[in-house]
């Protein structure tokens, strides 16, 4: 039985290291210090969101449809993941009018969403 990977020590909260890999078929064992992928820190729900986001090729409108969630919810989840990966998401006021128009033209957002974004700035 396989368990979901944990990345932090349950005792001291330090980042864990992977020490051993084993092939389930031939039982070859490789021991060393291996590192987790940056994505390993994401929850299973966040990984599912990333999968959907990539499958939709970053088109927020398609992500909305696929997950049946609103545009602000998609943006919120995306910002949460960006932060968890160690990056700073753009602040609302950094979304300029040109990028809003570009998203509107590409069909990523609706006219109502564009109006909301422009009003928030």
Automatic annotation (TrEMBL):
Name listed for the protein in its UniProt record: DUF2089 domain-containing protein
InterPro entries reported in the protein's UniProt record: DUF2089, DUF2089_Zn_ribbon, PucR_C-HTH_sf
Pfam family, one: DUF2089
Domain DUF2089 intervals: 9-40, 42-88
Domain of life: Bacteria
């Amino acid at each position: 039985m396989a368990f979901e990977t944990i990345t932090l020590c349950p005792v001291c909260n330090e980042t864990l290291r992977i020490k051993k890999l084993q092939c389930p078929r031939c039982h070859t064992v490789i021991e060393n210090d291996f590192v987790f992928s940056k994505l390993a820190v994401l929850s299973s729900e966040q990984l599912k969101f990333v999968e959907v986001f990539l499958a939709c090729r970053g088109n927020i409108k398609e992500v909305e449809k696929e997950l049946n969630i609103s545009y602000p919810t998609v943006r919120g989840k995306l910002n949460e993941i960006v932060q968890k990966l160690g990056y700073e998401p753009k602040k609302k006021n950094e979304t300029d009018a040109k990028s809003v128009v570009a998203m509107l033209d590409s069909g990523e957002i609706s006219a109502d969403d564009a109006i909301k974004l422009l009003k928030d700035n």
